[in-house]
Every structure is written in C-alpha cells, then in structure tokens.
Amino acid sequence: MVVGQFSIVDEADWILCNTFHELEPEVVDWMSKLWPLKTIGPTIPSMYLDNRLKEDKDYGGSLFKQNNDACMKWLNEQPKVSVVYVSFGSGAELGAEQMEELAWGLRSSKSNFLWVVRESEAGKIPKGFVEETSENGLVVSWCPQLEVLAHEAVGCFITHCGWNSTLEALSLGVPLLAMPQWTDQGTNAKYIMDVWKLDLKL
C-alpha cells in the first residue's frame, strides 16, 4: 500500500503531511522542492491546542472500547506530574519477556502508572502484577489518549513512538521515554532523541 502511494506521488496536486514546519524545517523544505507539500499538523483537536474551534474536541472515533471513566477518575485522584503513562498504540505487540521486564520495572519504580494493555496482550502480564500494584497503578485495555496526555497528573509517556502518539505528546509538552517496536518508530525515536533532544530511549 505504502509503495503504491509513492509510485503515484508525482501525479498528486498536493501532498498533505501531519507535521509542521517549525518541527522539521529541513525535511519540510527539502520535500517541498520535490513535491507540492503542505503541512497540516498537528492534526490534534483544537480543544487541546488553541481552542479556536469550540466543537473540535476529539478525533471522532476509536478502534477500541475506551475505559474513559475509569482512566480519568483514577487520574483525577493522582498528584500533579506523578503518573507514568504507558501505551504502545493499536498495532505494536511486545514480546512476553519485554512485557515482563516492563511490568517489573514499573513495580520497582514505585511510581504511579497508567498502563494500556490491549486485551490481545493481557495474557503477557505477569501473574499477580495487577493485584500487587493496585495501590499505585491502573491497567486498562484502552483509554482516551489525548485526554490522558493533557491531564495534569501525567509526568511522562513510555511510548512506541508511533507518529500520532509522538506528535500528541510533543504538542502537549509531555516528556517521552522511547521504546520503538517496528516500522517508522525507530526513526521517530532517533529523531526526537538526537535531533530534538526531547526523549530518552529504553
């Protein structure tokens, strides 16, 4: 699919990119010399940025059932900048060993954490982990990521560095811990770590 898109790129009247010039000036300037590029990012609802469009509050849909009430109620009870938010998007899959190391790392840190683990991945959580960490952690199958990242309790984001998650965190000023898994995520992690110097890599 991606290769097919690039094969017809010269036929396009416009190429719209979910980025902005100030974030990637060299890339945008270079690509603009080759194609009719227009930056339209960040494509985050106005409510989280400048609030110019009062009705622009969300993306309008989700692939998964969200645990909105549980997530937000729990976050509201946490101190400011105290929560480690952990999510690897809708497609990335951690190996069982990675999942176990992450779980025990969260437990050992004694930090408050909100960890999104899709139902298809839940079997990889170490036995007893959820119960052992229930006083300072919450594990859910999905949550409203923008609301979570915008919440004052969130202090950092352990992420796979998918572009949407990266751009959301950057736009909302949330520090990142990068744990890329596949596709563009390694490149994104390298860029935000070495070029923008905005994250640490796990």
**Terminal CA distance:** 31 Å
Task: Detail the poorly predicted runs.
Answer: none
| Tally of distinct domains | 1
**Average pLDDT figure:** 87
Question: In the CATH scheme, what's the topology name?
Answer: Rossmann fold
Q: Approximately how much helix is present in the residues?
A: 25-40%
What Rg, in angstroms, do the CA atoms define? 18 Å
- Taken in chain order, the helices and strands follow as HEHEHEHEHEHEHEHE
Total count of strands: 8
What labels describe this entry?
16% strand, Rossmann fold, 6-stranded parallel β-sheet, 202 residues, two-stranded parallel sheet, 8 helices, 8 strands, alpha/beta
Description:
It comes from Rosa chinensis. Belongs to the UDP-glycosyltransferase family. Keywords: Glycosyltransferase, Transferase. This protein is 35% helix and 16% strand. By secondary structure, it is of the alpha/beta class. It has one domain: Rossmann fold, CATH 3.40.50.2000. The strands form two sheets. Strands 5-4-3-6-7-8 form a six-stranded parallel β-sheet. Strands 1-2 form a two-stranded parallel ribbon. The longest helix has 14 residues, at 96-109. It is globular, with a radius of gyration of 18 Å.
Q: How would you briefly describe this protein structure?
A:
With 202 residues, the chain is an alpha/beta fold. Helices cover 35% and strands 16% of the residues. It has a single domain (60-201), classed as Glycogen Phosphorylase B (Rossmann fold).
